[in-house]
Amino acid sequence: MKPSAYVLLFFLWIGTFYASTIMAFAEFISLWYMPAGISIAAFLIFGKRAFIPIFLAVFFLSFRFTEQLQQGLDPAHLAAAILFALAHTVPYGLGGLAARYWLSHFIQHGLPIRIIGLLVIYAVSALCAAIAGLFVWEFTTETYDNIIEEGWFAWWLGDLVGVMVIAPLMCLILPKFTNTRLAWLEEFYAHDRKLSANLKPFLFKLCVAAAAVIGILLLDSQLTHPGIAYFVFFVTIPQLWIVLTERTSFATTSLVVITVIMAFGVGLFNVTDQAITYQFALYMTAAISYFAVAVPALIQRNIQLQEMSMVDLLTNLPTKWLFKTLVNQVVKSSRPNQNHSIAMYNLDHFKKINDDYGEAIGDQVLIDSAQIMKNELRDSEILCRCEQDIFVVFMPNLDIDAATKRANELRHKLPVLHIDDLILPIRGSFGVAQVQFGEAIEETVERATRALQQAKQEGRNKVVAIS
Ligand SMILES: Nc1nc2c(ncn2[C@@H]2O[C@H](COP(=O)(O)OP(=O)(O)OP(=O)(O)O)[C@@H](O)[C@H]2O)c(=O)[nH]1
Predict the structure, then answer these.
(1) Class of the CATH-defined domain 320-466
(2) Which of 17, 53, 86, 409 is deepest in the core (most CB within 10 A)?
């Protein structure tokens, strides 16, 4: 945690506190309490080191407030400020640390499970902070009766919305103030680099969301029907649109913008009777966004897995799976009189190269020999790495005799490799088989495998065909 982070957290906390009071709809109860999000995110990103700036910020403000209440500067005054600071910092501190542990130590769980855990931690921390805060308030001011019973729900929900909206934004900003790499956090933003940074479509969608919120607030202020406010739940639709199609950083920003409009709008349009409904809508919008964020990340991972299943990571050749798919396409679209063949080859005594010179040299042999073979192929021929040191070439429009001849040509193309100071003559045994009309490519591969085994048994470095 860089020293500037202490200053930043202190002033952010105080600044957001004042911003939240502007948006308060009841005494000290805000539609969304932004500082709660700063606190939990600070512990989430910096760990227990966040305690000092957060504690000091709450203490500073609590101390000033009691001053404003003109209770005089006495020890009770100080004790109340300390209690307020602890009532906030301890629940959010423990919550932030629990969330940090949960996200970083349970990477094996999928994103949705980790998000559910995160939401539970957020909810419990906010509830504890709300009850502890009200308890300290009742205990220190003596002017309010039943304040816990009356205020806990709105305080809790306001804090929870603050946590859910502000924490993701802070997770974008605060990591810049630490030198530690937070791999568990990067996962949430990993797909950002792959999505467009074009602001125009994002701003259009954001305007749709903002117009929806303002429209509903306006309607609610004009029509007296209590059900109008429930339409605000529709704002989840444009927000989801943003989350599913834009960068996580944009989705995070839009959540903050929508929340600010709604929080200001409730007071501005004088619809405070329905404040809880708006708070719930904010909470639902944020919760749904959390889950939706997992979707682009999952899609990205699927694409990655698909690529891995299609391209061999070592040689960059198609895998057996892709080979079969491509060959099946060609075979299925062929006429009955069109003959196609495959040639399977296995490097001779490859194990010895691994054993004598190490796996890195073995890898290089596979890479170089595959590349050289690929360069020798015609455009219509397809080469794939089947497994280990076994490769297959698809030879379209060649019957078994022509394919055997072609396989012999390719056998002679296997190179003498020069790797570091080593000179390695590469040899291979080939098995050729013709694709019979109507058969699955797996059957052809099986015959080619038998032909290859026969070539090995007959002394290697030769071509054997099985029709
Ligand atoms: N370096 C390297 N070795 C691999 C890789 N995949 C498999 N191997 C090794 O490749 C060797 C394959 O050996 P075989 O084809 O069974 O035997 P061989 O020595 O080539 O003998 P013949 O095929 O009978 O001529 C095994 O030792 C595997 O451990 C890989 O990706 N990189």
Answers:
(1) alpha beta
(2) 53
